[in-house]
Amino acid sequence: MTAINRPGPEESVPPGVGGDLAACLRLVARGDADAFDAVYDLVVPSVFGIVRRVVRDPAQSEEVTQEVLLEVWRNAAAFDPGRGSATAWVMMLAHRRAIDRVRSVQKESERERRSAAADIPFDEVAEAVESSLERERVRRCLRSLTDLQRESVTLAYYGGYTYGQVASLLGVPAGTIKTRMRDALIRLRDCLGVTS
Amino acid sequence: MDAISAPDRARFERHLAGCAECAREIASLREATARLATATAVPPPPALKARVLAAAAATRQRPPAAEPETAARGWQARTWPGRTWPGRGRLALAAGALATAAVAAAAVVFGLSNGSMHDQLSQAQASSQQIAAVLTARDATMMTGAVKGGGTVTVVMSHARRELVFTAADLHTPPAARGYELWLIGPVGDRPVGMLPPVRHGMTGPVIAAGLRPGDHLALTAEPPGGASRPTGPMMLDVVL
Questions:
Q1: Are residues A40 and B36, on separate chains, in Cβ contact within 8 Å?
Q2: Residue A63 has what pLDDT?
Q3: Measured between CB atoms, does A62 come within 8 Å of chain B?
Q4: Structure confidence at residue A107 as a pLDDT band (50, 70, 90)
């Protein structure tokens, strides 16, 4: 994992992995290319990871990842720290772009029911990433969900399916899926100890 | 989670705007959702970085929201990538209704000149679709501004489509048989967008301006009936796009 230790006379970017992304974004909003370089290193593994998990195709995953990073560059001034963390903002952009790509590219008939429903979503082998502790924590919390909750989250978040599609894949009414999803997110949030 | 449809999202965002408790709850669930993403982190091919940095160097950034100024340059831009903002759904409906009503009113007042009412209405519908396309564009930005002499304008612009939708409210009817004309002033040249529809109850629009170029300003003048090919009246509004 690339560490962010930036030598140079002006340490305008906080050094260290897990450096303050929000502070970097403030600098990026002013056109600071070094700050954007740091933002890239901070977020691209998470962005690429979720994009690849949703989009699957390696070439398109790179394209979408580039689109996401460019959107961060273009719209850094629009990030509002009052509405949530910088990481959540970037991940929202990434997830949304990945879903858009999937929905525009893949036709309904081509989307087979994934064995992903049974997938724990971290079965990709990857080089050690700084979030391995995080990864284990999320994995453990996902395991604490009921099967239906976990499948709903997996299909909706990683599979990019709509509520209606998840409902039909799991053979359960759409209203039930909405409830399951909300319950799942609340349990995940409490298990992870997330505050807003 | 992005599993809901666009109109539902718009209603949902409007509700959020007025409910701080809900906003906190949603924010915490969003943080939890973001952890689902960070937990699947995988480094991309190293060659991607150079491509991204090069592309960023060639990409303009969107400026932050500015404080409104007085007189002709009162603009504020608000943008949140990929989101709708409260009121945009209503604006879309209002714009569609205005387009159809404006054509119908014009047809009644001026007689059916070019084509039948049906043709004119379907022309209005075609432009309604164009208007809706701009309003719902992913990169749509909304700006408001003040007109010299009275009135406010609202512009929704899509960079990607190079189009904007213009509406105005609280305008004074133009003096003695003149009409309002909208212009694009820019490095490519000054070109008329067209005459605004007759002002009714201070309102006019929506009007589409297409073929926007970097550096363009949007301007408004009062011109003789039928319009002019070059602005002759004083600038009542000058907007940097």
A1: no
A2: 96
A3: yes
A4: low
